[in-house]
Amino acid sequence: MYQNINKEIANIFKKMAAIYEFLDDKYRALAYHRAAQIIESLPDDIRHYIETGKIYKIRGIGPSTLLKIEEYIKTGKIQKYEELKKKVPEDFIELIDLPGFGPKTLKRIYEDLGISTKEELIKALKDGRIEQLPGFGPKKVENMLKGLQMYEISKRRILLWDALQLSKSLVNEIKKLKEVKKIEVVGSVRRRKETIGDIDILVIADDENRMKIMDYFTSLPNVEEILVKGPKKSSVILKIDDNERQVDLRIFKDDEWGAALQYFTGSKQHNVHLREIAKEKGLKINEYGVYKVDTEEKIAGETEKSVYESVGMQWVPPEMREDTGEIELALEHKIPKLVELKDIKGDMHVHSTWTDGANSIKDIYEFVRNNYKYEYIVITDHSKSVRVAHGLDEQKLIEEIKEIELINKMYGLDFLKKGIEVDILVDGSLDLSDEALSRLDWVVASVHTHFSMDNTERIIKAMENPYVTCIGHPTGRIIGSREPYPVDMDKVIKAAKETGTALEINSQPRRMDLNDKWIRKCVEEDVMMVISTDSHNLGNFAYMEIGVSLARRGWATKKNILNTKSWKEVKKFVNAKRKKFGVKTK
Ligand code: DGT
Ligand code: CA
Ligand code: CA
Ligand code: ZN
To answer: pLDDT at position 2, please?
Structure first.
């Protein structure tokens, strides 16, 4: 069912790579690492590639890898992995791909200190034994402890993207029952919070069908434990990819739909505030409806709109329901028209095989043209100092530009725009010459090093370059593994405004950066933003949904988002900055 088999297999191959590295088999480590990346980047279910024979054409998946993939599809297991696991301390399997840990580090700790359990490991981190190992030191230990803590927290909450995939497949599964009249995901998933505690689902059904639905729900595949089972509410724990996920299902009646939707969408704070307003008007709101306090007459509840209107409010988009001013706006009927996925006209941060992307520019062109209604995409590969990604120097960039122009010509459409994700060096200067940047349509500048220094001045200096049109993932955080680097975002936002530079809303599920708070600040300050996927493979283009959700949580409208506009407007934005800095415009 809600199986993402590509991800499951890729995860196992990543673990196998790490174990091989632990065992000093660098060759196999590299092979499995590469296979994992390839499988993760396939836009379709891997079974499809096997059925159609396309799998044989994929470079990097050899015969023995293919056998293991087939074994997993048939049996849900890979024997070789089961054997390998026995060669590494059991607790290390879980930790081996955490940032700050890794096979080399764990091997040292295992061999030098004889440590083989998580408990001992934490103890040794705290009592100074690991710090004293040559090459470790207090900084490294601090990072390991922080990494461990973030990992534990991230295990408890689900990334929005994962929760959305899981919710969608659960809804599809439950919807199959004809007794289910209506179904909707509520709670923090509907509000599109960046991480999700548990998944809440709401169903409308007739009373006599409740238990049949609950029986079905509690016996879905992957259900590991049933926490509660009743006619109104059931809760289960699903086991997915080694993680435990709680799902609550509630069943209501037809005429309660709107009230229940409103109540279980939350947030709690939003609901508390809403009920206060209702009270002032002599009304009572609960999950069944809106009632007059004096006569107990029910006056609303069938639709969510009716619930809000009964207290004199406009309907509030779920992404805004956090009690941070939206109630006041709704009372004045001034809720803005938030940006939507269908407003997006292009993707402005895309990597190809020229650096660390998985797909050629030609494949990207065809995939996006076939699957999205975009008017343009910008190819933005890495610049030279990002060595792990084989970043481009000036010469390589010229070659890439030629290829882009050739592909556009081939298809007779100026669809691909020429860009770069240029590295911001430690002093705020850029990794490529102005002359090189001036040839491009769009320049994303990003920080990829020195995450512990204060990066405010560094980023501002980059924005003062006339060719830098956007700052990529402006705070650098990675959910579950890296805090934002120290940066004064108020200053960055001010400088973005002054220099005419856009800030990126990066849609990668672990980045989501700018976050909702800073997006809202940009909206207030009228700073232009771009929602990008930072795609490294074809599947990543779907992440746009994440960025749009974030933008909505930051109250952004179309006018705040540059890539809702035509390319002509984008060009105006680029040229306005160049003009401001007194350089020639194209
Ligand atoms: P999560 O699961 O931590 O990501 O966040 P939510 O918002 O999904 O929270 P959850 O699952 O505890 O509850 C779902 C919604 O149900 C919540 O957003 C509002 C509503 N709700 C739950 N318990 C209460 C409560 O005690 N009072 C009120 N007013 N609402 C509640
Ligand atoms: Ca929830
Ligand atoms: Ca819940
Ligand atoms: Zn990128």
So the answer is: 54
Lowest mean pLDDT among 109-113, 198-202, 374-378, 478-482: 478-482
Tell me the domains of the chain and their CATH numbers: 5-155 (1.10.150.110), 158-252 (3.30.460.10), 257-331 (3.30.210.10), 341-580 (3.20.20.140)
For ligand 1, is residue 268 a contact (CB within 6 Å)?
Answer: yes
CA distance 523 to 572: 20
CA distance between the termini of the chain: 52
Task: Indicate the pairing of strand 195-196 with strand 158-159.
Answer: antiparallel
Model confidence band, residue 58 (pLDDT cutoffs 50, 70, 90): confident
d(CA 283, CA 279): 5
Distance of CA 225 from the midpoint of ligand 4 (Å): 40
Rounded CA separation 36/30 (Å): 10
Pick the residue whose CA is nearest to atom 18 on ligand 1.
266
Neighbouring C-beta atoms of residue 486, cutoff 10 Å: 13
Q: Whose CA is nearest to atom 3 of ligand 1?
A: 197
Question: What residues contact residue 135 under an 8 Å CB cut-off, 6+ apart?
Answer: none
**CA–CA gap between residue 115 and residue 124 (Å, rounded):** 8
| Residue 60 CA, ligand 4 centroid: distance in Å | 23
DSSP string for 378-402: EEEEEBTT-GGGT-B-HHHHHHHHH
- The preferred substitution site among 200, 247, 287, 321 for testing ligand 1, maximizing ligand atoms within 8 Å of CB, is 200
Q: Whose CA is nearest to atom 15 of ligand 1?
A: 264
Average pLDDT over residues 233-259: 94
Do 59 and 124 touch, CB atoms closer than 8 A?
no
Residue nearest to atom 8 of ligand 1 (CA): 187
The span from the CA of 7 to the CA of 4, in Å, is 5
pLDDT in tens, 508-520: 999 999 999 999 9
Q: Any idea which ligand is nearest the CA of 347?
A: 4
Closest ligand to C-alpha of residue 273 is 1
Please report the atom of ligand 1 found closest to the CA of residue 266: 18
Q: Which of 18-32, 68-82, 490-504, 572-586 has the highest mean pLDDT?
A: 490-504
The tens digit of pLDDT for each residue in 443-495 reads 999 999 999 899 999 999 999 999 999 999 999 999 988 889 999 999 999 99
Cis previous bond, 267, omega within 30: yes
As beta bridge partners, residue 557 has: 338
How far apart are the C-alpha atoms of 497 and 513, rounded to whole Å? 18
- Tell me if 117 sits within 8 A of 67, measured CB to CB: no
DSSP for 75-129, written as a single string:
HS--HHHHHHHTTS-HHHHHHTTSTT-HHHHHHHHHHHH---SHHHHHHHHHTTT
Please say whether the beta carbons of 15 and 97 come within 8 A: yes
- Nearest ligand to the CA of 447 is 4
Contact yes or no for 459/447 (Cβ under 8 A): yes
Task: State phi, psi for 249 to the nearest 5 degrees.
Answer: -120, 130
How many A from CA of 381 to the centre of ligand 4?
7
